[in-house]
Amino acid sequence: MTGGFLRRNWGLKLFSLLLAYVAWAYVVSRSPSVRFVSVPVEFVPPEGMAILDYNPREVRVRLQGDAPVLNRLNEQGLYARVQLEPSLKAGRPQKIAVQDREVIGVPNGLLREIVTPSLTVTVEKRVVRSVPVRVRLGDPPPTGFRVVKSWAEPDVVEISGPEESMRSVTEIQTEPVDARNHRRPFTALQSLTKPDALVSLRPEAVRVNILVEEVPGPVEMTLPVRPNLDGFDVDPAVVKAVIEAPPSLLQRISGRVAAVADVDGRSSTAGVRLDFGALALDETAKIRVLALDPARVRVRRSAP
């Protein structure tokens, strides 16, 4: 009798059991769940003041709601933003309580409760001033090249922050500039390094200009001396010169350098100068005469 009852309508009974399980699973999945998260705190200081220090840096928050919503929650998007009252005293640690409503980024439908709401905050007078920017060099250029000059645009930035944090700041440095693959002058947008986490910069990045050139090398030459005026002879007829210039430039002027005696027609001696031919002014500026022996020669009129 009993066996017959169990065998009757067994498909309907199985379906009812499945429906009951689905209903139970749905109820369980929709039951409130709890998740604890640590949330960073951002304080907004009163006008004319700056945050000197606060501790701890985050608050513990209890979230309650649907399990699927809690499981999908990304903690990186949560933070607490607290507007401080103007009545706070400068230079004195004070207790501040973070309110539930000040936790931002919590999805709708979740309840929030701050477990550890109390933080200690110290504010100080906010100082604003301008300081120069110094370009900090990182990896040098390839072998045979060097950085001869570097500068930033703008070369002065505005910094602001607590008076104590600003007291020792005399300049702002850029992040290290990498020149290892550069054989020519170049520019780059470079971030500035904060001297303190509580100090603000404006702007936060500058354009750096790096002047790269070849490392000059010396070369010694023996050159015949020619007078700049016809009808004169000089003694000695050759001079020794040592010049310094970038290797590529030395290669270009090789065989074209001349020693010239500037004869004025009255003096018995004349100064010797080097003539590098038709070089551009910026190329001529890269050449240094390290030695010239002799620097003056004797002058006499040529025999008729």
Structural class by sheet pairing and helices? alpha+beta
Number of helices: 6
Q: What's the pLDDT, averaged over the residues? A: 89
End-to-end separation in angstroms reads: 155 Å
Largest sheet: 7 strands, mixed
The amount of helix comes to 10-25%
Q: How much of the residues is beta strand, in percent? A: over 45%
- Which shape, going by the Cα principal axes? elongated
What series of H and E elements makes up the topology? HHEEEHEEEEEEEHEEEEEEEHEEHEE
Give the spatial strand order of the biggest sheet: 16-21-19-18-15-17-20
Structure description:
The longest helix is centred in the N-terminal third of the chain and has 21 residues, at 10-30. It is built from six helices and 21 strands. Helix content is 16%, strand content 47%. It has a seven-stranded mixed sheet. Strands 2, 5, 8, 10, 11 and 13 form a six-stranded mixed sheet that branches. It has a five-stranded mixed sheet with strand order 6-4-1-3-7. The protein is of the alpha+beta class. The termini are far apart.
In short:
The protein has 304 residues and is of the alpha+beta class. The chain has six helices and 21 strands.
Secondary structure layout:
Layout: H1 2-7, H2 10-30, E1 32-44, E2 49-55, E3 58-66, H3 67-72, E4 79-83, E5 94-97, E6 103-104, E7 111-114, E8 118-134, E9 145-153, E10 156-162, H4 163-166, E11 172-173, E12 186-191, E13 200-202, E14 205-214, E15 217-227, E16 232-235, E17 238-245, H5 247-253, E18 258-261, E19 269-275, H6 281-284, E20 288-293, E21 296-301
